[in-house]
Specification:
heterodimer; A: mainly alpha; globular; B: mainly alpha; two-stranded antiparallel sheet; about 5% strand
């Protein structure tokens, strides 16, 4: 029922926004912007990049809301815009990666020096905090080895809990393809993190 | 073959993405096959390992900063071409321009006053016999310069001509019957970023709910104002029209179903009491009585329904 109410609510706001009502659009933004920012933040890994994706996504939505025809939910539509922007960002990041300040660890594996800078926040348990940070760094490194599309499917499924059918809709593909992509992504991640289990 | 199928689908199983029959089949197989049981366990452990790292929620500061930045950008952003929207939905366009006279009047008043103020300053301070006017420095004391339109220098002289726009703060007084006061209040109710000003304007507008433009502004405030206090004020002003105006009734029902504030919802529920026998109201009450998350709303809806005569 909540979903249906949200949809009715969104429909009114979208129609108002299509008539040029900026306040209605801003209200619509508030329904989705936390999820959008969370996705952008996790995928880009940097607050300023996440803010850029957020800004570009909603500006694009505002400029094109006149062409929204209610063929899918606004949720799917805005996620489609955000995921496209994030995919572009990931692709550019992959190209730039060669310039990142990398070093070799004891096993010959590469790690990003910037990720090793200690976090200034005080933790209740420094040892546990260190382990958590190491785990995060490993997972983050493994996620970065995925292709942008694998990364996106994994992100939407694992961290955002979306159904694969929705993921397929967002990425303009089939549920079956999304399933295969998720399978490939988890296989790669399992391989990369095998020693951590 | 079966083991291969299980290995391919164990990820989907862990993520709850397998169809019921396939899930049953997989579970049956795993119960008999040690290798596949080990594979499932490994996948579950891996899933648990990854779940230790959760996607960080953006901080409230980051969210607030992003919203502010977007708001600024939206002020200068343009939607798709105007004629495009016009061609697609002329009826909506007509509804949209209903308030244009009020807006146009306000813009005209501000523009006229700003223009007069600027000309006055330039005229008063222009010293005779000198080619340079000191006006801009003093003009900026009581009027903000919003843009420079042109800068020209007369050839062969040192006289510089600058055309610029200003916005100045003006004051007007009048009663609620004064049309200009009403127009300004209508503008403030919809467009002011200060919720205190919106609250004051909506409060005053509730004195004139019989004027259709005022009623529309109250409905707008009830639907879209972000401040629950303003929405409550709008509800107060609309209360007496729930019975006779179907648009008001719909807006109050919307608030009852969708509003995020329990106080607004409770007030909306109180207002629809006199029209609880109406078909649309009854439908909403039945939904609320069956499923609403608020125990109070649910029980009140049930009580109101119980007071209604049964219908076949």
């Amino acid at each position: 029922m909540a979903g249906q109410e949200r949809r009715i609510d969104d429909t009114i706001l979208i129609r108002e926004a299509q008539r040029g009502n900026r306040a209605a659009f801003e209200e619509l933004v508030r329904h989705y912007d936390q999820a959008v920012l969370r996705l952008a933040l996790h995928l880009t890994g940097a607050e300023h990049d996440a803010q850029d994706v957020y800004q570009d996504a909603f500006l694009k939505a505002y400029k094109n809301i006149g062409s929204f025809r209610f063929e899918c939910s606004f949720y799917t539509w805005i996620y489609r815009i955000v995921t496209n922007l994030c995919l572009d960002h990931l692709r550019k990041k992959n190209v730039r990666k060669e310039d990142a300040p990398v070093a070799k660890d004891g096993n010959g594996g590469e790690y990003n020096l910037l990720e090793q800078v200690p976090d200034g926040r005080a933790g209740a348990n420094p040892e546990r905090d260190l382990m958590r940070r190491q785990l995060e760094a490993r997972i983050s490194g493994a996620l970065e080895k995925l292709t942008p599309r694998e990364r996106m499917v994994f992100e939407l499924k694992h961290y955002h809990g979306l159904k694969l059918r929705t993921v397929g809709e967002i990425l303009h593909t089939t549920e079956e393809t999304a399933k295969n992509t998720l399978f490939r992504a988890t296989q790669k991640l399992r391989g990369a993190l095998a020693d951590m289990r | 073959m079966k083991c291969e199928w299980v290995r391919e689908n164990v990820t989907l199983h862990v993520y709850g993405e397998l169809a019921d029959d396939a899930r049953h089949e997989l579970e049956q197989h795993v119960a008999r096959c040690a290798d596949c049981a080990a594979e499932l366990k490994a996948e579950q452990e891996f899933h648990a390992l990854l779940s230790q790292e959760r996607a960080a929620e953006p901080t409230p500061n980051l969210l607030a900063a992003s919203r502010m930045r977007l708001q600024e950008a939206l002020e200068t952003a343009e939607q798709g071409r105007f004629w495009h929207r016009l061609a697609f939905d002329p009826a909506n366009w007509l509804r949209q321009v209903r308030f244009s006279p009020a807006l146009a009047s306000v813009i005209l008043i501000l523009g006229f006053a700003g223009g007069v103020g600027t000309s006055y300053k330039v005229f008063v301070h222009q010293p005779s016999g000198l080619g340079v006017s000191p006006a801009p420095a003093s003009a900026s004391n009581d009027a903000s310069i919003t843009g420079i339109r042109s800068i020209t220098q007369e050839p062969g002289t040192n006289k510089i001509d600058i055309k610029y726009d200003t916005v100045s703060t003006l004051e007007t007084q009048g009663s609620m019957n004064d049309q200009r006061i009403q127009q300004l209040l209508l503008f403030a109710a919809r467009n002011n970023y200060n919720s205190g000003v919106r609250m004051d304007s909506v409060d005053l507008l509730t004195q004139k709910p019989d004027v259709s433009q005022v009623r529309d502004a109250l409905i707008y405030a009830l639907r879209y104002d972000t401040n629950p206090g303003v929405r409550l004020k709008a509800l107060d002003g609309l209360g007496s029209f729930v019975k006779d105006d179907v648009h008001v009734r719909d807006a109050v029902l919307e608030a009852l179903v969708n509003d995020s504030n329990p106080g607004v919802r409770t007030e909306a529920l109180r207002l629809i009491e006199p029209v609880k026998a109406d078909g649309s109201v009854r439908g909403v009450l039945m939904t609320l009585a069956a499923k609403d998350q608020s125990t109070y709303i649910k029980s009140q809806a049930r009580t109101m329904l119980a007071q209604l005569p049964e219908i076949d």
